[in-house]
Amino acid sequence: MLRRSFFCTTLALLWGASAHAQTAAPAAPYPSKPIRMVVPFPPGGGTDILARLVATKLAEQTQWSLVAENKAGAGGTIGIAETIKAAPTGYDIVIGQKDNLVIAPWLYKNLPWNPTKDLVAVAHIAYTPVLIATSASSRFKTLADVVQAARKAPHTISYGSPGNGTSIHLAADLFAKAAGIQLSHIPYKGSNPALLDALAGNVDLLVSSVPSAMGQIKAGKLRPLAVTSAQRSSSLPEVPTIAESGYKGFDVSTWYGLFAPAGTPATVVTTLNTEVNKLLAKPDIKAAIQAQGAEPQAMTPAQLAEQLQREYTQWKGIVEASGAKLE
């Protein structure tokens, strides 16, 4: 009996020690493996340029392994859907923006996700105005030239955009309504095809993010006519705003931020947010982002989440008024 009691007591102590060791074992530090940054748009566009800049510089700053991976299609919604399905561990994040998080849910009838519920905001990166530009050989020297020509011949002035229902397309639609003109919209599958056709003169105008067009502007092949933000772009200080061009109060910008699947631990979100904000505070990173035509802007996760919720609600009416629809 004594032996049995001693055996049971010893076994219980060993089991308790084992269980304590298991619960007390420290979790692997985050990150302990590569982080995948999903880019939901094709290579070469504004989102891709900023995503790869941030991924590269963040890896250098932290010694983390970050891999940017393009998952384009359906207005940026495929990459979002893939990220939402991933395990909420912090090893799958996505660079989202106004197009795929604010506008796309009102364009596509059957999206199986809601950006305000199925994603958690991690870090804001930058915002950028929309740019209206034309080929350097174009007859249009100013935005006023475009308006005058469009009033004389409605629907004859064409513009290329990265796609139907994108924030860029809707910014152009809002401008046309403000100016009381009718332009002919030519949607492309991404920024680069629209840019190439504008350079070739196949469309009269290019409506684009500033980062997507900056290289050709610097090369002297593309003539910027106006930006859609309330203030001039620090990257293109000589280019007037639409508001300055006679349409007071006009202000449309897009933005870029990092998001993770809902349920991602708050400690992971805080770690990512801290490192991204530290990166955005560096003068050389600020300059690199501004050189691409964007304005770096740090936010807390709560501030980014509030911005997403506010614009998600606000843009429903704008999308409906535009008449843009996608299946």
TrEMBL record:
Respond yes or no to whether keyword Signal is given for this record.
Answer: yes
Which family does the UniProt entry place this protein in?
Belongs to the UPF0065 (bug) family.
| Coiled coil segments of this chain | none
Annotated InterPro entries: BUG, Bug_dom1
Q: Does the keyword Nucleus apply?
A: no
Official protein name in the record: Tripartite-type tricarboxylate transporter, receptor component TctC
Question: In the record, which residues are listed under signal peptide?
Answer: 1-21
Report the PANTHER family cross-referenced here: BLR1237 PROTEIN, TRICARBOXYLATE-BINDING PROTEIN
Task: Give the record's keywords alphabetically.
Answer: Receptor, Signal
Q: State the Pfam families in the record.
A: TctC (PF03401)
